[in-house]
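thread from #wetlab-drylab

HS: before we spend reagent money on co-crystallization trials with heme C, can we at least see a predicted complex? here's what I'd submit
DV: go for it
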Amino acid sequence: MADFISEWWSTAIAVITGISILACGVLLWSQSKVKVKIGTDGKPLPAETTGHVWDESLMEQNNPLPKWWMWLFYLTIVYSVGYLIVYPGMGSYKGTFAWSQEGAYEKEMKEGEAQYGPLFNQYLNTDVKQVAVDPKAREIGQRLFLNSCAQCHGSDAQGGKGYPNLTDTDWLYGGAPETIKLTLQEGRNGQMPPMGAALGTEDDVKNVANYVLSLSGAAHDPIKAALGKGKFGVCAACHGADGKGNQALGAPNLTDKVWLYGGGIDNIMETINKGRANQMPAHKTILTDAKIHLLTAYVWGMSNSGKTAVTESEATALKQIASTPVAAEVEVVPASK
Ligand code: HEC
Ligand code: HEC
């Protein structure tokens, strides 16, 4: 066992285990020597008592254990010895079956891969957009999503504070199939440094926050926003001069009404003052290529099912997918187009 720093621990544990089992055996053997005493008339004598008496006449007797009971105990000892020969338990000794937790896990994973691999792999060479309209593939994609992604993005994929909504058409990093796939494979790490000091006073922060609100037409103080506009230059490096964001940096578009951290003035000021650091974990080592392909299609499909021009048959397929909230609005174009 690699967890042991030296063989000493392994040996010590093996010795302690051995002694414990032996001690149990000795204890049993010593106890089995207590016999029922037989009187001269051939009948068992009344059992000895320990001398403890309760409630006037209730006495604790010292009877030997029944034989069958004793043998059960011996059996457990034999069993434990057999167990420790075939399974790991004596220090670092691996057991004749060479069983291990990791081995069992890997075997299960391999069996799973053999059973389900072909199911996933059949889509690997199909274009993402086509996989996205395959009802069976979407069903698989949804299961994978529930297993691997829902804990952060929600089972409806609509996200939450800090976790982007994947069903809309607003993207931090871009919504093209290749970009989504890259996000899943490599992960993402959105970083906005604290900008309060760069802006100046808390009033400056408030002014810029009002300017940010004005960009999306949200309720704001126009005078403060006008004052903040001049300071937005330090933000433009990432969010663009027009505030429309930069997908290469994952800097969000500030002119729409989609907010990763909430659209209130307090949230915006908090972002400016404290900055943000957000991480989407890389999945290339966790999920197979085929699973990532299916998930890419599932995610792409969710945000595109509402507006992509699809053929009539694709539209029918999309409408069958109950989990697609916007499926009813699918735009249908003639198949010949
Ligand atoms: C541990 C939480 C977590 C898990 C698990 C997770 N994500 Fe994410 N994901 C995030 C966060 C946080 C972001 C935003 C990163 C940022 O702001 O830079 C993100 C971003 C994304 C984006 C980019 C969105 C955009 O607007 O560009 C996509 C696509 C995405 N996740 C899909 C998935 C899929 C599919 C899975 C399952 C394989 C998944 N995520 C699993 C936390 C998670
Ligand atoms: C170095 C690049 C950079 C600069 C400079 C920067 N930002 Fe950001 N900003 C980002 C990134 C990246 C995110 C997304 C963080 C995340 O993924 O969690 C972000 C997020 C935000 C958000 C949250 C948006 C939402 O949807 O909730 C606001 C608001 C914001 N920035 C405003 C500003 C303002 C105002 C300034 C100037 C004072 C500024 N940023 C300067 C990179 C930057």
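DV: The pocket of heme C (ligand 1) is lined by residues 148-149, 151-153, 162-164, 166, 171-173, 180, 183-184, 188-190, 250, 278-281, 283, 295, 299 (CB under 6 Å).
HS: ok that's useful, forwarding to the group
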